[in-house]
Amino acid sequence: MGLFDRIKRVVGANVNDLISKAEDPEKMLEQAILEMQEDLVQLRQGVAQAIAAQKRTDKQYKDAATEMDKWQRNAQLALQKGEEDLARQALQRKKTVTETATALKTSLDQQTATVENLKKNLVQLESKISEAKTKKEMLKARITAAKAQEQLGSMVSNMNTSSAMSAFERMEEKVMMQEARAQSVGELAGSGLESQFAQLESGSDVDDELAALKASMLPPATSASQPQLPAEQTSKPAEPVDSELEALKKQLDQL
Asked: Coiled-coil intervals in this record (predicted)?
C-alpha cells in the first residue's frame, strides 16, 4: 500500500469518526422522518398528477370511441343514399379516429397501471412513516434510559466510596464513644450512691468500736459495801495509755 493510500485511509477514518460522534440519534431520527414525510408529499403530488392524466386520457379515449361510432353511422348512411365516395371518406375518417383511440387505449392502460403502482407505494410509505414514528418514540425512550444509565454510572465511578465509608465509620465510632460515656456516667452515679451507703455502714462500725474503746478506758466501778477511803488514801488509777493498750490487745485477740 502506497503512502498516499494510507494517508487517504487515515483521513477517511478520522472524518468518519468525527461524523459518527457528531450524529445525535434523536436528531437523526427526526431528520429521517422529516425526509420521509417530504417524500410522502411528493409522492402524493405524483399520484394526483397521474390520476389527473389518467382521467384526461380516459376522456379522450371515450371521445374517440364516440367519434368512431359517428363515422361508422355516416358511412352507412352515405351507402344507403348511394354516395359511395362519401361513404369511403367517412370510413377513412373512422380509420384515423380508430388509430387515435387505439393509441389512447394503450396510454390509458399504462397510466392505470402507473396509478395503481403509485397508490401502493403511497400506502407503503404512509405505513413506513407510521412505523418509523413508533420506532422513533421507542428509540428515544431507549436513548433517554441509556443516557440516564451512563450518567448514573459516571456518578458512581466518580464517587469516593472509601472516603464515604470512612466518614460512616468515624460517625459510628463517635456514637459508640457517646454511648460509652453515657454508660460510664450512669455507673458512676450508681457507684456514688452505693459508696455513700457503704460509708454509712462503715461509719457505724467505727462508732461502735469507738464506744467500746471508750468503755474500756473507764475505771472499774467500786462496790457499794466497800467503805470509801479518804481521798488521800485511794490507790493511784491506771494510766489511760495502758488501758487503751489493753483494749486494743483484746480487740486483736478477738479478730
From this structure: 61-149
> Is residue 117 over pLDDT 90?
yes
pTM here is 0.48
Residue type, 86: L
Handedness of CA 215, 220, 223, 224 (dihedral sign): negative
Neighbours of 245 (CB within 10 A): 11
Which residues, 6 or more positions from 31, have their beta carbon under 8 angstroms from its beta carbon? none
For 103-109, the CB contacts below 8 A with 24+ separation are 104/57, 104/60, 104/61, 104/64, 105/61, 107/57, 108/54, 108/57, 108/58, 108/61
Location of C-alpha cell 468500736: 209
**∠81-85-86 over CA atoms, to 5°?**
60
> Contacts by 217-224 with C-beta closer than 8 Å and gap 24+?
217/243, 217/244, 217/247
Topology adopted by domain 8-158 = Helix Hairpins (1.10.287)
List the grid coordinates of 103: 393509441
The residues spanned by each domain of the chain are 8-158, 170-214+242-255
pLDDT, one tens digit per residue, over 146-182 is: 888 888 877 766 665 566 667 777 778 888 888 887 7
How do residues 233-249 score in pLDDT, each as one tens digit?
Answer: 444 554 566 677 777 76
Which is nearest to 43 in space by CA: 110, 133, 129?
A: 129
Residue (of 34, 33, 31, 35) closest to 22 by Cα position: 31
Half-sphere exposure of 19 (CA within 13 A, CB side): 7
